[in-house]
Amino acid sequence: MNLIQQMPAILIGMPLIAAFLTPIIDRVNKKIRNGFVIVVLILEEIFMITLAWHVFTNGIAIYTMGASNPSIVPLQAAVPIRIVLEIDGMSAFMGLISATVCLAAGIYSISFIKEGNGKGKYYTLLLIMLVGMLGMEFTGDLFNLFVFLEILSITSCALIAYRNWYGDAVEGAFKYMVVSNIAALFVLFAIGLLYSRYDLLNIAAISKIMEYGSLEKIALVLLVSAFAMKCGAVPMHFWAPDSYTVAPAPITAILVSASQASLYALFRTCFSLYGNLMDYHSIGIVLILFGLLSMFIGVTMALPQKDIKRLMAYHAVSQTGYMLLGVGVGLYLLGSSNFNTYGVKAMEGGIFHIINHAMYKGLLFLTAGAIFYRLKTRNLNEMGGLAHTMKFTSIFFIIGALAIAGIPPFNGFASKLLIYEACYKVNPILSIIAMLVSILTLASFVKVFHSAFMGPKLHDVEEAPKSLLIGMGILTFVIILFGLFPGWVVNNIVHPAVTALANRIDYINAVMGG
Known about the structure:
Blueprint: H1 3-28, H2 30-58, E1 61-64, E2 75-76, E3 79-80, E4 84-87, H3 89-112, H4 119-138, H5 142-160, H6 167-198, H7 203-209, H8 214-230, H9 239-246, H10 249-274, H11 280-302, H12 308-333, H13 339-375, H14 391-404, H15 411-426, H16 428-452, H17 466-484, H18 486-502, H19 504-512
Antiparallel strand pairs: 1-4, 2-3
Helix pairs in contact: 1-2, 1-4, 2-3, 3-4, 3-10, 3-13, 3-17, 3-18, 4-5, 4-10, 5-6, 5-10, 6-8, 6-9, 7-19, 8-10, 9-10, 9-12, 10-12, 10-13, 11-12, 11-16, 12-13, 12-15, 12-16, 13-14, 13-15, 13-17, 13-18, 14-16, 14-17, 15-16, 15-17
């Protein structure tokens, strides 16, 4: 049995075991604890890259828990038994995002999170957050999707409230908890409806025999609403600004990826679970409307903000709109003669934007955290002249700001260009709105750069510690790499993800054996 076969279980099991060992090591030696956590996160990154490359080149990877041969799903009366992890191109793509952002956030946290404030517990929760994200992205089972969603929600809520001596941290965590509970109930109720109808929980098994009656339609509405709520799409975005703002900066960066795990679940529901049963045009239009509302309301709410993290939080809502718009246009065209040209390109833009957003938005939140680390304020009116002393942080901020605004040669330009081009073929107004939002985004970050970094030296502060710079540097490296070689990224990483998402039959056959 080779290591590649075991990778899906290792990627979930290793941080879970490490999370339980971390508090023990914390009692022995703080530096050993830090080194242990970082080594685990580095191994996660290496294993995730290895698994992703295997999936991109060889197709879907299956891991059946407890089976003598985990790559084969035992069938009993044509019903899959045991918990099955199914990693296709889209799952591997999302796993890369989760592992990379958690690695950067973990290194960043070494200096950012002070000892004496439960740092051992902090790292334990961070590792379990990674487990929740990877579990959601790997599982082929609806109930375990719910379980991992709950694991992710509980740990996220605890880390949002980590600095509980601030009243707004508790408020932000409470709002996140309320929304998470509502979303979880929606998901659990939808799973109950499908289980009562088919006596199945495996996504592929249900998809193969699913009909499209009233129960299935109710379940679809519940699942779409729940995952749209969790990914922060307008009009269900109200939790995002409060939660993103108050969480520690490295956790905010991970929360962006956590929201995208819910976005992944939304896409998996639409494409793999329901597939060609639903009305592509109607669901596509719904996602396009979610996308347009998120883009426009997010950016307009960001413009007047004085709190640097709250401003960035509204931009996170806005950027989620681009992903929904791209995939929504792809769904709208799915089944039509234009899908193989404009529909695929729209989906490539939307999916590419997921990883781009995780990198540059994560970087921007980390730069805001570096500023807060030195100044102890998030108020833009109390900043100024930081470029004199925080030179590397200034450079990282500029790169992140240019990337989010879609300025070449950074990664945001490539994904937005694909979305503009595909949307223009459907309706030019969609592209006009998307470009207008990018212009407003650039204007917003010009204001931030002028307020925080330009002008005379107002504060006698030092550059951020090395661990913060390394964390920001990891994400910056990916931003520049993807911006310089977008064609390679699209062909080798994004296109396999899009193909896997659009090809429901392969997803079903991998579990059901045709």
